[in-house]
Amino acid sequence: MIPVAEVVISLDDVSDPQVVALLEGHVAQMREVSPPESVHALDVEALRAAEITFWAARDGDEVVGCVALKRLDEDHVELKSMRTLPSRLRQGIAGQLLRHAVNEARQAGYKQVSLETGSEDFFEPARTLYARYGFLPTGPFAGYTDDPNSSYFTLRL
Questions:
Q1: In contact, 129 and 95? CB cutoff 8 Å
Q2: Do 82 and 67 form a contact (C-beta atoms < 8 A)?
Q3: What is the CA radius of gyration of the chain?
Q4: pLDDT, tens digit, 9 for 90 and up, residues 7-26
């Protein structure tokens, strides 16, 4: 069994070349595994928007993951761009990122965190992770529509 990585998660301005490469890889992979109309991953520029708070996870000098929260309204945020460096999968990094984002949302006074992820087999580990942390299936939110390639989840805080 691979030991759980201990990472440092901190606010990030999405300018570090390692962060940019991680995000570009994320968007490229989402375009490979989902139909174009079902890709909702934000690109680097979109993650710099005022309504988004972005964190990077580092193990020493290596960026190993990231996560963002997008403010939808005063009570509701959306989890976006949660990604683990492919070479660091199955080391507990995603769980650390998810706990961090949920704790930040709670501390900021939000009452709900929602997310969209794929419904294809590729996304089964993500759906399992969200369920393990208490996220429940829900319908489309914040402009999303019924899409057979999307699964929607929410967590009441």
A1: yes
A2: yes
A3: 15
A4: 999 999 999 999 999 999 99
pLDDT digits (tens, 9 = 90+) for 102-133: 999 999 999 999 999 999 999 999 999 999 99
Q: What is the largest CA-CA distance in the chain?
A: 42
Task: Retrieve residue 137's tokens.
Answer: 């299936």
Q: Are 82 and 135 in contact (CB under 8 A)?
A: no
Stated pTM of the model: 0.94
* Residues 10-43 as b or e (16 or more Cβ within 10 Å = b): eebebeeeebeebbeebbeebeeebeeebbbbbe
**Domains in the chain, start-ordered, CATH in brackets?**
8-156 (3.40.630.30)
Please give the structure tokens belonging to residue 69: 């929260």
